[in-house]
Structure formats: C-alpha cells, structure tokens
Amino acid sequence: MTALERPADLEPGAEPVRKRLALVASKGTLDQAYPPLILATTAASLGWEVGIYFTFYGLDILHKDRMEHLKVASLANPSGPIRVPNLLGAMPGATAAATKMMKNWMKNAKMPDLAEFMEMARDLGVTLFACATTMGVMGVKDSDLIEGCDIAGAAAFLDFAAGADVQLYI
C-alpha cells in the first residue's frame, strides 16, 4: 500500500484517494514556525493535500513585516537554544542570542529560511489559511499577509479538517 492509498482504494477499479493533513499553527515564535512548515512540505511532497490554519500569534508567520523578525524566547523555554535559568533568560540580549543561535543551527543544517519555506509550501500546493477572526481581532489586513494566503473563518477550516486523515495542533 502506498502513501496515496487507503484500504478502500484497493478495490478493483477504485481511484486512489489523496491523504489529507490539516495543521493549526497558533504560535508566532521562530521555533514554532518551522514544525508546521516541515510537516506540510513533507506531506505535500508525498502527494498529500495539505492546509495550515494560522491563528492567533501563528498569524505572524504569514505577516509580511513580522515573518522575518520572529524570535526564540529564552525566558521560560527550558528546551530552547540557550538553556539558562529564567532569571538569566530575562536579561537583555538573551532572546536575540537564542534567535541568532537557532537561525545558525538552521543555516548549518541547510534548512530553508521561513520565506523560502513559504514559497516551497505554495509551490507544492499547501493551502495557507489565515484566520479571519484573528485578523479582525489583531487588526491585520489582507495586504499585510504574504502572497497566496486564503482568508478563512473557523467553519471553513473545520470543513477542510473534517476530511483530513491527520489533524495536528502546533
């Protein structure tokens, strides 16, 4: 059985049904931006239908001006790039250092930056859902978002997610 087949697809003459992945990205930090994009592009490259719903602070991942300035918190992040007690993590410059360290890790691992990941996701057909409610609450306009986003309310995304084989909240 391949990644594109389900047991029901094995019936003679049945058309294979694409698997579907529905992700919710709710956090707007650099370390939380990569997991949904890695999962989405991997699934899409395997032939899956993929949609990511960016809501609350996750909407910053789609924001033209904010995407390049996402940070890694050193405070209250015990598994972050800089493992220090909270008191030290609160010191000026700790977040900048943790962010720089993570960007270097990603660069050394030859991982694409966020802009490249977004382009890759769009090229692979990943649907980037921007939460309409969050946009209204946070004053984000359509023009603030990167190209290729679908503005969607919760009901629209739930319709997409209801047909998904895998649903993940990140």
| CATH superfamily grouping of the domain at 18-68 and 110-169 | DsrEFH-like
Over the alpha carbons, how many angstroms does the gyration radius reach? 18 Å
Q: What is the element string, with H for helices and E for strands?
A: EHEHHHEHEHE
Q: Stretches where pLDDT falls below 50 for ≥5 residues?
A: none
Give the overall shape, derived from the CA principal axes. Answer: globular
Strand order of the largest sheet: 4-3-2-1-5
Average pLDDT works out at: 87
The amount of beta strand, in percent, is: 5-15%
Named at the architecture level, the CATH assignment of the domain at 18-68 and 110-169 is 3-Layer(aba) Sandwich
Instruction: Supply the CATH class of the domain at 18-68 and 110-169.
Output: Alpha Beta
Q: Separation of termini?
A: 29 Å
Helix content: 25-40%
Question: What's the layout of helices and strands?
Answer:
Layout: E1 20-25, H1 30-45, E2 49-54, H2 86-89, H3 94-108, H4 114-123, E3 127-131, H5 132-138, E4 149-152, H6 154-162, E5 166-169
Parallel strand pairs: 1-2, 1-5, 2-3, 3-4
Tag the structure with descriptive keywords:
single chain; 170 residues; alpha/beta; five-stranded parallel β-sheet; 15% strand
In short:
With 170 residues, this protein is of the alpha/beta class.
Polypeptide structure, described:
By secondary structure, the protein is α/β, with parallel strands linked by helices. It has a domain at 18-68 and 110-169: Hypothetical Protein Ychn, Chain: A (3-Layer(aba) Sandwich), CATH 3.40.1260.10. It contains six helices and five strands, in the order E-H-E-H-H-H-E-H-E-H-E. It has helices at residues 30-45, 86-89, 94-108, 114-123, 132-138, 154-162, and strands at 20-25, 49-54, 127-131, 149-152, 166-169. Strands 4-3-2-1-5 form a five-stranded parallel β-sheet. Helix 1 packs parallel to helix 4. The protein starts with 19 loop residues before the first strand and ends with a strand. The mean pLDDT is 87.
